[in-house]
Every structure is written in C-alpha cells, then in structure tokens.
Design a protein that fits this description.
Shape: globular
Radius of gyration: 12 Å
Distance between the termini: 13 Å
Oligomer: single chain
Strand content: 25-35%
Structural class: alpha+beta
Largest sheet: 5 strands, antiparallel
Number of strands: 5
Strand order of the largest sheet: 2-3-1-4-5
Length: about 80
C-alpha cells in the first residue's frame, strides 16, 4: 500500500503507474494506518513496489507512507 495525502494525489499516482503498465487500485486509507483523515491508499502487487517508487519519484509524487503485507498483518517501510 502506498499512502497518498489526498484523492487527487492518489489519482495522479494511479495514472502514472497505469501508463507504466503497473496495475493498481485506489481506496480510502484505513484509519489505523494514517493520522490524516483524508488520505487514500494505492494498492499494487508487492513485486511492483520498487518500479512504482521510481516512477512516482520521477513524477514528483512522493508517498506519505508505504506498507507491505507480512504474515499476520502489514509492516511500514521506511521512506
């Protein structure tokens, strides 16, 4: 999960990733993952994360937080 600060940023992220052939979806970020009430999450396959981060940085679309699925839950990835 890549956390974006708003729906607009999440949509921009989704468009940039889609242009690069990375499939993703947007949804409202779970409240326990963010302190911001209006944050949205961009979900993609974990193997696509490295390429996705390069694309987003190139487009100046920096994530607020990043989480990876782990057995028994999810873990925050340092930015």
């Amino acid at each position: 999960l890549i956390i974006a600060r708003s729906i607009t940023y999440a949509q921009r992220m989704q468009r940039a990733l889609s242009r690069a052939g990375i499939r993703c979806r947007i949804f409202r970020a779970p409240r326990d993952l963010t302190s911001s009430g209006c944050a949205y999450a961009v979900e993609l396959a974990p193997p696509d994360l490295s390429a996705a981060l390069l694309i987003l940085r190139r487009e100046h679309l920096d994530p607020v937080q990043i989480y990876l699925p782990q057995p028994g839950g999810i873990q925050e990835v340092p930015l």
